[in-house]
Amino acid sequence: MLTHLLVLGLLAGAPEIGTGEVVASADRTVILRTVASAATAAAGLPVGAIAWPQQYDPADHAPYAMDFAPLLASGEKIAAIEAISMNATAALLSVGVDQDAPYAPIIDTAAGQKVQIWFLVDPVAWASVSFSAAGVMLPVTVRVLTDSVPPKRYERTALLTVRQL
Amino acid sequence: MIDNGRQAHLVIAGVFDGTAGVQGNKLSFLPNLAGSQPGQVRGGLLDGQAIRLSTTKDATGPFWTSRFEVIS
Fold it and tell me: Where are the domains of chain B?
């Protein structure tokens, strides 16, 4: 049993679980689909990935959320956030996920089906020409583990448009 | 748990010399030299380490993304 839990990452070595109230507004929440659309946002980005309706100004510091509810069974909750990653272009542009309290990623305490993220852009890059005009669309990938028995794992990507607003 | 990638010094002869974004085995850069076609280069130096590249242009912007592997 112990080995089983270790393999599943539910015991030692499992990531810390942060929970809290998700305060991201509806326009800053993507509701994930059970079946991704075949339409693609752009080559190089995951096919069918959904974009947050609200775009992001590089100087913003506001919460965004991913709603996993359509993927989860009745009563099923997110037990852990296994990983969150930005891509290489985000790293180049100094766009990242804030890791510091009270802005670190959390799982919704209410229904346990949303993950909230605060993005952060290095002030040095706020005026980057890359964020002018249409800006840049960046994929944000989140992998979660559910509390079902046995646990399920879902990894989904949402698209954040960063541009001067 | 959170992987925001990193920045590293990338040199691609005739294409780029400056800061690139790196995440996993992919890197992103904006060409700043006009000596070679970015899509045709096959190697470079990342933080002084020789790397093999496979480069494609992002469809949505001016950036070039490349899978890379360190040549040991």
Answer: 6-67
